[in-house]
Each structure stands twice: as structure tokens, then as C-alpha cells.
Amino acid sequence: MPGTNVSFKGRVVKIEESRVPQVYIVTIEGEGRRLKADIHKELMLFKEGDKVEVVVSKSLPEYREGEDYCGKGHMFSKRAESREKIKLLVSLGGFLNVIEVPRKEDVFEVMDEVYLCIKRV
After folding, report:
1. Is 17 in contact with 52 (CB distance < 8 Å)?
2. Torsion of CA 86, 69, 92, 11, to 10 degrees
3. Distance CA 58, CA 41 (A)
4. Rounded CA separation 62/38 (Å)
5. Quick one: which of 1, 6, 85, 91 is 20 to 30 A from 79 by CA?
6. How far is CA 37 from CA 3, 24, 77, 94, 104, in A?
7. What is the pTM (predicted TM-score) of this model?
8. Domain ranges in the chain?
């Protein structure tokens, strides 16, 4: 669906404990893009080194229940990181997700309802 989503394949490069109890910060990098996601320990399906695909979409992407992480939330802010990059900030039930992508992939508006999925590859 060109124009309604952002997606990239990458690797889980870091998992660290958040200051919030029972929450981890997961960093995924690949194809010149990065996701930093807050994920509750009960929903943690990944380990460092895992190959994944990240999809942010206005419609629910295909996913495998119990194997992939997928949630619905809102794009609550966008921040210019540089002339080439932008950070998209998504809240999934209060959990922060920061997606850094090339500016040309900024297809969302603030307060768009979006799905964020992290799928095993």
C-alpha cells in the first residue's frame, strides 16, 4: 500500500530495561531506519539479533497472533531530525514508539490512527 505505510526489515540490536517497571526499550535498525519501542515484558516476543520487519500502517497489516507484535495507536507527533530524516512518534496505549525514517516516507498526519507491527522474518 504505497502512501499509507512505512515498512522496513531490520534486526533487533538492543533490548534494555526502561525506568518504567516491567517495560523494555527495544531498538531495531535496518535499511537506514530505526525504531525504539517501549514493550511490556508480557508482550516481549523478541531477543537481540532477531531479524524482523517493522510496519506502520493506517490499516491492519497481516500478522501472526502470538508470533508477531502488533498494536493500534495514534501518531501524536512528528519531529524533524535533519534535512533527510524525520522522527514519527506513535503511542500504543501510552507506550512510546519512535520511528526514524527518511522524510520522503512521512505519509502520516498528527493524530492519524495507525497500527505498528513488528513481525518475525
Report:
1. no
2. -30
3. 26
4. 22
5. 1
6. 23, 8, 15, 11, 22
7. 0.94
8. 5-120
